[in-house]
């Protein structure tokens, strides 16, 4: 019981962090809004320019940032269980590359933003199905085969992306590069990503026990009654869909799915809770959402009035943090 209470305290603190990050995102920008004005705008008790800025400009972007960060972190946590590797990342399977090919192709054709998002999602799903089909092949599905197939598909997508950038007109290159580096400024609506994040947690949490066993090895999980192959296929499909929705919403944003689950896992192990997916999955989603929300807020104000692609900041923050953790915990296992 004390352990459960401590876990609830940690989740409550992460919820407070998410709320504080959201408040900071709504307050901060070239047009500053006081905390009280933000709360009045959210409650519907105020009118004016500040309310319009909060409700129509900053709130949809902030919710999209939180949802995408949560999706990437949850997908990363699932991939690290699937591959039993704390360095696994949802982008390793080529899903981001497929989405980029679809989106850039739509940009090159001069299609609308809504069509571009649909093309990105279609490209992500196509890459997912391609990797899954090739890795399954003769029904001998293995972690190494999945990883190698994903790397090859990602390399092929990278070649197509380079070709598109080469033939694209100069006036369209800036938008393409921003999308490739992650850009939440073009997020149409946060609600699809929020709904998928919620459904992803609802689907995965009932299988936390099976995920804990799978993290210890296929043989042990099978001996204790886990249907290993269906579970692994389900994890892969769900992680791929989570990544596809995040990439469709915000473009290619790296290191959230890699660093956040790793950080959360190390903290849990240090606190004596081990690698318990019942706590890790929701904690990673909350932490990932908060981190991307804070990074997006910084991207809007660092060189204001210009905006940086949020993927640049996540990489600048993620690379040194991950290298530090890797040096401190060289022998850590999930």
Walk me through what this model shows:
Helices cover 76% and strands 0% of the residues. The longest helix has 35 residues, at 49-83. By secondary structure, the chain is mostly helical. It has a single domain (84-328), classed as ABC transporter involved in vitamin B12 uptake, BtuC, CATH 1.10.3470. It is built from 14 helices and no strands.
Features:
mainly alpha; 76% helix; 0% strand
Radius of gyration (Å) = 20 Å
Overall 3D geometry? globular
Q: Please, how many domains?
A: 1
At the fold tier of CATH, the topology name is ABC transporter involved in vitamin B12 uptake, BtuC
Mean pLDDT: 84
Low-confidence stretches: none
What would CATH call the architecture? Orthogonal Bundle
Briefly summarize what is shown:
This protein is mainly alpha-helical. It has helices at 2-27, 35-43, 49-83, 95-108, 113-136, 143-167, 170-181, 191-204, 208-214, 218-223, 228-250, 256-270, 277-301, 310-328.
Write the layout of secondary structure elements.
Elements: H1 2-27, H2 35-43, H3 49-83, H4 95-108, H5 113-136, H6 143-167, H7 170-181, H8 191-204, H9 208-214, H10 218-223, H11 228-250, H12 256-270, H13 277-301, H14 310-328
Helix pairs in contact: 1-3, 1-13, 2-3, 3-8, 3-11, 3-12, 3-13, 4-5, 4-6, 4-7, 4-11, 5-6, 5-11, 8-11, 12-13, 12-14
